[in-house]
């Protein structure tokens, strides 16, 4: 203590060094499944084929609803939303592919990709796979 009654600190407290722990996300070790419906198999089911060819946004709206998304979104930007829905389906079901393949499918074969998406959803639903996450 000093003459005026205050305490004098003679040593600063020593801070312990911070330890940073970084945990990297693990990639899935599950084998990726393949698409059960090919991109060029869009004419196998006539109803989906006709809707994809003449009213693709409507077909994408139906698929969006089955994926738990707002069915109005595909009406605004079908190509972009279709690509995002294809990516969502791949992620939910561990289906092989990449952002590049999704982009190319909807850029160059949009109607076929929309038909493939709807057929894949129907196939998965018929086997009891839940797609609403």
What can you tell me about this protein's structure?
This protein has 5 helices and no strands. The mean pLDDT is 85. α2 packs parallel to α5 (110-126). The protein starts with 45 loop residues before the first helix and ends in a 7-residue tail after the last helix. 47% of the residues lie in helices and 0% in strands. The chain has helices at 46-54, 56-66, 78-93, 99-108, 110-126. It is elongated, with a radius of gyration of 27 Å. The relative contact order is 0.17. It is mainly α.
Oligomer: single chain
Label the overall shape. Answer: elongated
Quote the beta fraction.
under 5%
Number of strands: 0
The chain-level structural class is: mainly alpha
Helix coverage percent of residues?
A: 40-55%
Biggest β-sheet description: none
Helix/strand order: HHHHH
Distance between the termini: 66 Å
Radius of gyration: 27 Å
What number is the mean pLDDT?
85
* Poorly predicted segments: none
**How many H/I helical runs?**
5
Q: What labels describe this entry?
A:
mainly alpha, single chain, 0% strand, 133 residues
In short:
With 133 residues, the protein is mainly α. It contains 5 helices and no strands.
Write the layout of secondary structure elements.
Blueprint: H1 46-54, H2 56-66, H3 78-93, H4 99-108, H5 110-126
């Amino acid at each position: 203590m000093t003459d005026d009654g205050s305490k004098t600190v003679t040593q600063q407290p020593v801070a312990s060094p911070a330890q940073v722990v970084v945990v990297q996300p693990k990639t899935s070790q599950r084998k990726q499944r393949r698409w059960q419906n090919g991109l060029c198999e869009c004419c196998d089911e006539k109803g989906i084929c006709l809707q994809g060819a003449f009213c693709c946004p409507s077909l994408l709206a139906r698929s969006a609803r089955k994926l738990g998304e707002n069915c109005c979104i595909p009406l605004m930007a079908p190509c972009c939303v279709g690509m995002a829905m294809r990516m969502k389906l791949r992620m939910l079901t561990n289906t092989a592919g990449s952002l590049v393949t999704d982009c190319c499918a909807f850029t160059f074969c949009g109607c076929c990709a929309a038909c493939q998406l709807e057929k894949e959803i129907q196939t998965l639903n018929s086997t009891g796979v839940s797609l609403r996450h």
